[in-house]
TrEMBL record:
InterPro entries recorded: ConA-like_dom_sf, LDL_receptor-like_sf, LDLR_class-A_CS, LDrepeatLR_classA_rpt, MAM_dom, MAM_domain-containing
Gene3D superfamilies, sorted: 2.60.120.200, Low-density Lipoprotein Receptor
Disulfide-bond pairs as recorded: 52-64, 59-77
Protein name stated in the entry: MAM domain-containing protein
Keywords: Disulfide bond
SMART domains given in the database record: LDLa, MAM
């Protein structure tokens, strides 16, 4: 016995269709019928080209990704163009695009706090808490910052503040409601909250006004989230001062 190849012209089809290969029992048995290597050729229209929305970035292969993923350190396009020099990612200030591999990029602990952030790689010192690897490289050599809340006599509400450098006020169009860039400033970060006493993580905007500072809580997360990294995007409200 040998395999037989058959080719059939389906012809003009003007609506959705399906193909059925049917076996009908005959009196000439015992016998078996087998199929292999089915090929439909020239049966499908060209796939539509992706048209990305105004809040998306189009990769070289036409895939659309969220615009917040451009220059966010992580490669999301197959060819890596979302993190390329063509997007001027190399011009972003170091503190605004920091992996903590080469230091703290200008971020620092609040000197008034007793509890501090620490640079680390690999697992955290206490079992069943924190990550076992960083998010950037997903291995035990990559660096990240963490707060160790174990083994310390801490009062409820004890805080540990990680502060950015002082940032200039955004351009006027950031506060212009008719501008496409209105409130376009946002921050992305990855966080890991694992352990029975992981506490809460908050993001605060401190505007340095002439007479006093104005603090706004813009994001908050409470309790353990499991042993994994989470990506968070927070759009900052109207900013009128440094």
């Amino acid at each position: 016995s040998s395999w037989q190849n058959y080719t059939f012209l389906i012809g003009k089809v003007t609506q959705e269709f399906k193909i059925v290969l049917e076996v009908t029992l005959s009196h000439d048995y015992p016998a078996h019928l087998a199929l292999d290597n089915i090929l439909l050729k020239n049966c499908f229209p060209d796939p539509p080209q992706n048209v990305c929305s105004s809040t998306q970035f189009q990769c070289a292969n036409s895939a659309c990704i969220d615009a917040t993923k451009v220059c966010d350190i992580n490669i999301d396009c197959e060819g890596g163009e979302d993190e390329s020099a063509a997007q001027e990612c190399d011009k972003v200030m170091s503190f605004a695009r920091c992996t903590f591999e080469d230091g703290w990029c200008g971020w620092h602990n609040d000197p008034k706090n007793y509890l501090n952030w620490t640079q680390n790689n690999g697992s955290t010192p206490t079992a069943s808490t924190g990550p076992s690897f960083d998010h950037t490289y997903q291995n035990s050599t990559g660096m990240y910052l963490y707060v160790d809340m174990t083994g310390k006599q801490l009062d409820m509400g004890t805080a540990s503040d990680l502060e950015s450098p002082i940032i200039d006020c955004p351009p006027p169009y950031h506060s212009n409601v008719s501008s496409p860039y209105y409130n376009s400033c946002y921050i992305t970060f990855h966080y890991h909250k694992h352990g029975p006493h992981s506490g809460s993580l908050g993001l605060f905007l401190i505007e340095m006004q002439r007479n006093t500072n104005v603090t706004t809580k813009v994001w908050w997360s409470f309790g353990t989230k499991g042993n994994k990294w989470f990506r968070q995007v927070v759009r900052l409200p109207n900013i009128t001062a440094k």
